[in-house]
Fold these 4 entries.
Entry 1:
Amino acid sequence: MDKFDFSLLLRAFSIFSVVATHFGLYELVGGSLYLIALSGFNFVKYTMPKLNSINGYPHNPSNTELFHAYFRFVGKLALPTILYLFVVFIITGQNHIFSLLLVSNFISPDYANGMSYWFLEVLLQIYLLFSIIFFIKPIRLSISDSPYRFFFLASLIAYIISRTCIYFFDTNDLFNRLPHLLFYLFLLGVLTAFSKTTSQKIKTSILLTAICAEAMITRFGGLITFYYFAVIATIWCKNIYLPKSLCTPIKLVAMSSLFIYLSHFQSLSLLKKINADIAPEISVLFALVVGIVLSTVWKKRFVLISITKTRISSSMQSKTVV
């Protein structure tokens, strides 16, 4: 048995659930909402230390360095999404500008007949909102002084803003998939990452329960149910022991979640060209494999480009000699 990061397991299970629900294997909604919270959680774990390492942070950091560090991270999500959409549109002969601009969630939940990614759009828009706090000195100092207190209050305020906007402005036609309405989900993930002591974990759990209570009572089993229990688990459980044979495939699925999400409907479409009556189990497995392959290719793109250039150069030299 090996020790395994529990949030990584939940990330893999969340993307698996998204694909399985879309393909009719089973229905467990809310995985995408948890992935928003997990994005906030992982931002604190992996990106904030890079911001903190900038010379002069938090008092007088270089805005150029701060901008570069923050948006270099955001670009790692935006660039592959835009490029993937661009390639798909070229292959299919489509052209949907709001998908490429990553703002189709403001147009329609079924924009371009579904050829858009509301989850990634909202997440990127949330990152844009979140970036503001790092460029305002008093807020930076407040976070540096007491990150837990700041994000506890920020999560509560963001939730109140969300509920107020939903009450006064009807956005049901957009399924409420808007950054200012879902920002609190992200901030609760940030707060979870800053919940270090038992006291903080209890307070975060109470806040999370209070925020999710209405949806849990009125629509148990709906979007918030999975989100609630997954975040509670993330608060209280850091690691889990798994058989060594399971650790590698679970980690592969988790680390390939972006490309699994991007490509799973195209994977299904490809399978249906081969066999229209394909079993959902096979469809889900195939989508996971395709996503893992695409993710691996993307991560090794520079190596592959270098190898290709070398081979082309060698081929041209051979022809010249002949």
Note: The first strand starts at residue 2 and ends at 5.
Entry 2:
Amino acid sequence: MANKYDDQIALAIEELKNRKETAIDTELYTSYLIQIHHSFMTYMGRPIIARLPDGLFYDWIEATILYMEKMELKESIQTSGLVSSITEGDEKIDFDNAVAKQATVITTNDIIKLFNTSLNAYRLLR
């Protein structure tokens, strides 16, 4: 069953493709777009399956890019650096990376805090 916002996701994927210099993983980007969409809609008190207000389209794109970049940074940091410990028979490798210790994990709640001024204009009263 198609969601009411599938056409918005298709437009957002095209916008992301235009902004990125490398090829994008459409499924991964769609997942990030949906996560941010759901967070935006929940914050605004609107049904999750509804279309995002048109005035928030570019905020949605910017929020998704920010979230995606932080997630990619976190992933790359966790798999690089000097090995600090390996135990025989252990499948876990710990990296001693000063950057990893300072890396900021971003959540969708952090995204909401960054974009709440824009979102408040579309927030429904309960």
Note: Residues 6-120 form one domain.
Entry 3:
Amino acid sequence: MTQDEDSAKPHVSGDLAAHMSATATAFQMLVICLQNNGALERGQFSRALGSYIEEAAGQTDSATIRLLEDLKSALSD
């Protein structure tokens, strides 16, 4: 990421960043449990999030999109 791109990103407060991180981690653990139990296929939830992000772009606030992108990224690892 270039310095210009980084400076263009909205600043996320410490509390919001911590909330986003905790939410992403909780969903990641839930998805792993569902996959281990056969209730969810690997990559299924990540693909669904990607589809929603594409549809919601421009209609949903940027903090929500960032949270969903972080979650999608965490689930893709």
Note: DSSP finds four helices and no strands in the chain.
Entry 4:
Amino acid sequence: MAAAALSLLSATTPARAAPQIRLVCPGGPEAFFCQPLAAALRARYGAVIVSDSPGNGVFSVHFVTEARAHGTQSEPQSGIKSGPQSGPLVGHLSGHLAWRRADGVAGTGPTLTLSVSDAGLNDAILGRFADDLLRFTKLPL
């Protein structure tokens, strides 16, 4: 009897659709910090669209870089590419997530800072930073 009630309840309760999320990465998917943030979003929310511009009618989120430095080099712009052509990865990163719902309501999360003194920022370190940003931002999804 309990199994029949469970089946009936499952059949009458619609499944909740996964949110549609657009991750905005100026410079595209290869932009600095885009891949670690996309992976963290996928792990938490499912499918993520990566784009270099926000879309209409979908929830969009992007990382706003407040400070990025390695040694004496400082690059305070978001969307800076990392890789062989752009020099070494940095040891300091500070910023927050900004989001906009499909209905136009916008918000931001708290600023978090990551500092690594004994190595450059690698994918594992950036992945943990992305997880922390999502944990503390509380996206309205």
Note: Confidence is low (pLDDT under 50) at residues 1-16, 72-89.
